Amino acid sequence: MHRSVQRLGLCLMTMVLPAGALLPMPKAEAAAVLTIDSLQEGAVVTSDIKRIEGTYAGAYNVQLVVNGERIFDTHMVDPDGDESGTWYYDLDTSAYHGEVELAVRAADVATRYNAWSDFLRFRAVHPQASAPEIEVVAPADGAAVSGTVQIRTEPDAVKPVQRVQVRIDGGQWLEAAKSGKQYVYAWNASGQGDRTHSIEARVIDRNGNIGRSLTTYVDTGAGSHETTVPADQDRSMWIWENASYNLILNPGSRTVLDAMASDTTTFGQDAVTTLYLGVGVYDGIDMLEDERDRVRSFVSWAHDRGYRVQALIAGGTNPPYFGTYARYREQAVREFEKVLNYNLASADGERFDGINLDTEPYSLPDFHTSYPDVQIQYLDMLEALMQRKQASGLGLAVGAAIPRWYDSSASAASIDWHGAVKWMSQHIQDTADYISIMDYRDQAEGSVGIIQQAQGELDYALSIGKPKSVVVGVETKDIADGGDPETISFNEEGRAYMEAELDEVYAAIGSHPAFGGIALHHYDSLLLLPSAWGPGAVYWQPPADTQAPTAIGGTPTATAFDYQRIDLAYGRAYDDGELKEYRIYRGDSPDFLPSPERLAGTSRGLGFKDTGLLPDTVYYYKVAAVDLAGHEGPASAVVSARTAVTELKPMIVSDIDVVYAASKATVTLRVSDLATGAGIPASVHGRFTAMAGRFVDGTAGASGTYVASSETISAASGEIGFAPTRILAAGYYWASAYDTKEAPATVWPS
């Protein structure tokens, strides 16, 4: 599955390729190369702003990853137009004190998968930003306690400590008293019964910096020590934060979820019974800390309607798979403990039924090259999390999302861990309560089909006595922009075809004792997936909704990123149903009126990157929310920003058309100079949409005309479109906001 790091649009500077007459562009033989050149390993940085820069070759969308916490778009400079050049980002280092780890990632031109630089670490010297640390030194983790318990904590801070507080079972933060180097709180644990408790501490220094301890779990009486009972998870559905925060903060969204999950008639589908709810931090809100009462309300609501709810987490880092690394183990443990502590602080009906862990270590740059080191680090992480579950006394099921090839790839073979040499999948199955295989294929049968790819994990689960512990996941997301082939998703085929294939899966393995059900990835894509693309498409329909959404919260912000991009951020809107998207309108004066012609784009989330603009130009924006029924709320107040300057000239797609014939769709487009209309022999990169998913790379002819065909699609009816993603030429950049014709779709029969 592809979580959550979203694609970021266009390359930020133009690039050039040799002109050719409608010839396919050869794939680069060399892998992308990325460097960080402005710092040496171990360098000391005292300035508030440090320009981080380096080089790239055979890559686009270069991003800077800082401390496994933040990901920043960089500015790319490519004077030769050969998809190689320099990049830079001005990093605010005043927020860091101590070691800071950097890495650069980008999309490889040839594969569209991520490529990485080497990691680099420097030392920032800003004592005012130093986060204090604190540890609970007594009682010990796993201790049995009774009577008055002296909770002893030990802070470590650069700046003077202002206060230390303790929290028990997720309650109020309680003041601890200073006692030498320690701070102590006396907890009366009498009368607590047989229960396992969580103890957390936090320290606040004079500058307001806050440090948090890891959790200590202790028992009163015999403790909790619940048993994990295998549960049927057919069907399950992943719900990521774009949707999960709506469910928590906008109660109307629950009505739509319930209607969709319980529907068994629209496509002849089985009902969804288990929800994997994304609980990560989103738009500055941490639902498990900041909105516990709302989370309890949702989980209780779901339980009342017969659903089971699991907390969906990753690695506690950004990007999430960094949580695999031992050096980021604490972040992974903290995220996991957050769910455990929420459960311990909540009533039975408000608790999560499980945790679905989606860390995906194979996305790391050294998963294959450092085999088996990274694989073992992941297994160590998983083991550490399971140990925290055991310490908490909770019986919630913990499952790991794994790719289908952990029992067949050389990178997952013969992993020597704890004295046993096994497949990666087998070690994970030994450790976790269950697995959810990302068995992403668009066919049930065959050697690469869903059934065969899950058989090894099913049989191994049976051999180790773990019933209902293999959940089989399928993909419905549009994945064509990335490096994966379209054959991993049902997006092109549609819901009716998918359900027919899943019927075959149930027939083949549904009665296997280890089969735990089908999981669908994911809610947002399922809401909009038709029965099949084309004139007869059937879409799922939400419950009747007559009210428009509210206005967005507050006034949007607009910030120029460079000469052709402005970034917008805005507050949440609310609705009596589900919010589908936010519409961003662009105008050339502050009093412009929103209209379809003024639509710059849409976003499911609370931000938007408006690209393809003109340099040194002021743009005005308004934002409105739209619900799933199509009702649009009031537009926001207007905001504006001015783009930067550049010597590059704007080019556009001046014409585009898609036709279907002889079992293929063919796109014909023309790239032109915006000012003169002259054709430009640009390099064109893009992908077919709807029923097709082929990604194409090529070069327009001297007249600016480019032609490409989709994969073979033999169907009596259907729909195929085309979406350019990058257009590059020497001395130009793609001013996509000024394309004269929107990319159409061809629908047949007409």
TrEMBL record:
Species name: Cohnella rhizosphaerae
This chain's protein is named Ig-like domain-containing protein
Signal peptide residue numbers: 1-21
Q: Which domain of life is it from?
A: Bacteria
Q: Which Pfam families match?
A: Big_7
> Keywords, A to Z?
Signal
Nucleotide-binding as a keyword? no
> Which InterPro entries has this protein been placed in?
FN3_dom, FN3_sf, GH, Ig-like_fold
The UniProt entry, under Gene3D superfamilies, shows: Glycosidases, Immunoglobulins
> Which residues belong to any copy of the Fibronectin type-III domain?
542-646
